[in-house]
């Protein structure tokens, strides 16, 4: 076999092995990214669930104040198709979609109740009924939240690496000012030594 043929076989095998190694490294890196993204989003969902009160405010005709809506934005980020596996996480996906539907119904009921509270034409009995409907929707929301939480790991089990927080602008200014002053002192010190 001529030398050029063995050289070409060596180059070909090196290229194939390099491509396989690159593919494997890329696959591993993507898996690590998905794992980190999943952990961060699950931590965000858990944090956003903490903002939802467990019991609804009962209606009282004396002080019917406006109610607030809830938006768990991390649920949509989990459902975007890049974090959950449709075969392994099918029940979790169903729970999240049920959560989103109940969240939308609750928010629509809250908007209706808040509009009825400020409307002058609303009869007091209708106002109480509207707020009772919001409380029913809150109970449905709470049940769906508990259903989603069945699929979430405990808070301490989430492998989550807290990123370094962005420094405040005034901290950056102070650091830059201190560096400039130190540099000016060093330049003044150098010029006095030369003179």
Q: How do the strands and helices of this protein lay out in sequence?
A:
Blueprint: H1 3-49, H2 73-78, H3 90-118, H4 124-149, H5 169-194
Please explain how this structure is put together.
The protein has helices at about 5-50, 75-80, 90-120, 125-150, 170-195. By secondary structure, the chain is mainly α. α3 runs antiparallel to α4 (about 125-150). It is flat and about 95 Å long. It starts with a helix and ends with a helix. The mean pLDDT is about 80.
Name the descriptors.
single chain; 195 residues; mainly alpha; 69% helix; 0% strand
Shape: flat
- What is the count of helical runs? 5
> Overall pLDDT, averaged?
78
Order of SSEs, N→C? HHHHH
How many domains, in number, for the residues?
1
- Provide the gyration radius in Å: 30 Å
> What percentage of amino acids are in beta strands?
under 5%
Structural class: mainly alpha
Structure summary:
The chain has 195 residues and is mainly alpha-helical. The chain has five helices and no strands. The longest helix is centred in the first third of the chain and has 47 residues.
């Amino acid at each position: 076999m001529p030398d050029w043929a063995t050289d070409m076989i060596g180059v070909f095998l090196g290229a194939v092995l390099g491509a396989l190694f690159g593919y494997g490294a890329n696959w591993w890196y993507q898996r690590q990214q998905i794992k980190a993204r999943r952990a961060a989003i699950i931590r965000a969902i858990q944090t956003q669930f903490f903002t939802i009160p467990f019991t609804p405010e009962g209606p009282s005709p004396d002080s019917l104040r406006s109610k607030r809506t809830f938006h768990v934005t991390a649920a949509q980020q989990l459902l975007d198709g890049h974090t959950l596996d449709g075969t392994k996480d099918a029940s979790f996906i169903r729970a999240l979609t049920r959560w989103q539907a109940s969240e939308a119904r609750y928010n629509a009921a809250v908007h209706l109740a808040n509009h009825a509270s400020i409307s002058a034409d609303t009869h007091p009995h209708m106002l109480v009924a509207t707020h009772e409907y919001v409380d029913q929707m809150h109970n449905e929301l709470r049940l769906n939240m508990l259903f989603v939480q069945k699929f979430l790991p405990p808070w301490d089990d989430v492998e989550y690496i807290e990123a370094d927080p962005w420094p405040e602008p005034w901290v950056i200014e102070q650091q830059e000012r201190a560096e400039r002053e130190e540099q000016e002192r060093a330049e003044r010190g150098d010029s006095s030594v030369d003179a």
